[in-house]
Design a protein that fits this description.
Length: 312
Amino acid sequence: MLQSSMQRALRLVWAEPHIVEISNYLKKKNNVLEIEITNTWNNRLVGDANLPAEKRTTNATTAPDANAPLMPSGLIGPVTLQIEDPKPYVQKIGITVDKKLISKPEKALVTMKTLTATANIHYTTDGTTPTEKSARYTQPFELTDYTILKAKAFGKGKQPSDVAQLEVEAYNPKTNGLNYEYYEGEITSTTDFDKLTPLKKGKSTGLDIAAIKGREDHYGIRFHGTITMPTAGNYTFYLLSDDGSKLYIDGKQIIDNDGFHGEIEKAGSVELTQGKHSIRVDYFDNINGEALKLMYGNGNNKKEIPIRLLEY
């Protein structure tokens, strides 16, 4: 039996399709829906059959055996609240961009579209939710820097569309990236770098080992620079490599993933203040496969470190 927040019995449902219309009983807010479940008649008779005759509360011409199995009963399966909107929705927005990573002074061209022809698209570029007072999309436009783009479509007599979102990264190749020193030899650990003389030095857009290496095996690279943390907090870093690698923040070892091995990811956490911190990643490759990737997260948000946060 279903009962409303006003303690009114809505309906007794005992056969399929088990649907109750409750629209006329709803208030604008603070509705409470209670569902009371009874056992099946068969199970009640089986239960009574196990009682002395004077304690039985049922009376049936033909009663089941006291040892008969019980039938499934109770609230079986999910309870679904089906809501029908009084107005149709504006169809969702499609956002396309010709590049998701801008190397300044490059630009990214943004195009938006909804299949609801009479709807107007409004958007923001600061990560806030758009309203009808936000900038209106009328034609493709360009982005020149890191942007969290959000868009929403509004139509007369219709519910607004869901918010569409797209993130476009950007970096300045003159300042964003890491310095590196490159080594070759029979390297067995990143600690061997201190005994070797680098064959070359330079600047790299992130941990780009393919662009730096001079041969396929037996080489090592030390990356170093600064990383800018957008907010203070406890950050977890994830370092994947084949073969060995280590991560240092502010001169302190955070992750030790050194030695000969295939692709292995290890993690380490550190409390960091907002702003710049020194960062160093040591990596070497022995033979066969090679891989190096550094990710980070604050809480459950694990992602690659944007180039714009790294500086030479």
